[in-house]
Amino acid sequence: MWLQYQGGIRLGQAIGKSFFRLEITFFVALLVGVCTGCRRLGEAFLEHDGRVASPLAAFAIPVPAGRAGNWLAGDFHCHVRPPDGPREVRSDFDDTVTMARAGGLDFVVLVPHVRGKFYEDAANRKWVAEANRRLTARARSVSDIVVVPGVEYTDGDSGHIGVSFVDLADVLDAREPFFEAVVRQSGILNIHHPYALPMSLPFYRRGLPDMSWRPFTRGTKIPREIAFVNDRYSAIEVFNHSKSVVDRVVQGDRFIDIRRALAKADTEVVRRGHPIALIGGSDNHAFSLRATTYVFAETRDGPGIANAVRGAHTCAMGPDACTFQVRSSVDRRWRIVGDVVKTTTGDAGWIEARWRGDGTLVANGERIYRGRGPVRLRVTGDSYLRLETATSFSSHIAIRMMR
Ligand SMILES: [Zn+2]
Ligand SMILES: [Zn+2]
């Protein structure tokens, strides 16, 4: 019984003691459609030597031995009034910090709306720079939670982009296009709700407009600045809490956008050639701020969190998928989400994946295993693996063949 996929990993080539059981497991899984009776294939395996910040303490995501840092919980998409207008956004800065504390968040990224191409107008540039300066000053007054000022660039024709971890006054002073200056100054570009397609609503006649990321959903006539963002963004918001609530009510399926975004992320990592941070956003406009993203940060501050995003050390929605780790025959140290693991082809080459609880292993976009880990797999080509649980989605781990 062979389950094979083009991307490089052959299931059924799992080796050693686990080979036979894995083979049986997949046979049963194919027959009955669900992986019942999957047994744990090895010893209890997760080290518990890492300190984990609230509210993750109860979950205790393991940190591999010798690795500096901690998992932090937070949110990358929170509106705030001002600078957001009072008709759109109810919660002000103090409300936001209070909610963040109550929810056990370590960090929150504030992204008031700015209009598409606002930078073409001198008065708008000045207003955005000033609003960002004020928000930065207030953020610095909070010491127990990392508050990061940014904006949600809201382009009705192309999509919405989170811009953060950068001084917008410096960006707007630069003599180069806005998004190029953001990237050169090491800011983070985050594609918000990429599959928020137009939707009619039973209780709101106008319905929801198209707020999707058009390079993903349409792909034609992409303006130059949007094409640039599409090649340089650091993160995709695969989970938008507000939209998922709407999807549950209107479509009866809160995961519909999440599945589309994850499928696209599986192809984007191949196109871009490296893991991309998969993150979450509450899209809080009133009183719904909650932890939506978990990051592995070396330091509990803005630079630490930004580096975690650049390194794709993230998972979205819930924390469980952050337990996903991989090692290989030539790289015996456990690697975390976002890392690169080297291995070799041939009889001596293998990778081992582990996680806590039930999960689905996705390799180059294909679901190749469902159940508990650890599993050993033979890999025959460069691959991108990620883990899904019922309510948590990890970024990818890259598998690279040594040549
Ligand atoms: Zn938006
Ligand atoms: Zn928003």
Q: How would the blueprint of this fold be written?
A:
Elements: E1 3-4, E2 9-11, H1 18-32, E3 70-78, H2 93-102, E4 107-110, E5 113-115, H3 122-140, E6 146-155, E7 159-164, H4 168-173, H5 178-184, E8 188-191, E9 199-201, E10 204-208, H6 214-217, H7 224-232, E11 235-240, H8 241-251, H9 256-272, E12 277-281, E13 293-297, H10 302-310, E14 314-316, E15 325-328, E16 335-336, E17 340-343, E18 351-354, E19 359-363, E20 366-371, E21 375-379, E22 383-389, E23 392-394, E24 397-401
Parallel strand pairs: 3-4, 4-6, 5-6, 8-11, 11-12, 17-24
Antiparallel strand pairs: 1-2, 2-21, 3-13, 6-7, 7-8, 9-10, 13-14, 14-23, 15-16, 15-18, 18-21, 19-20, 19-22, 22-23, 22-24
Helix pairs in contact: 5-7
The structure holds zinc ion (2 copies).
One zinc ion binds next to loops.
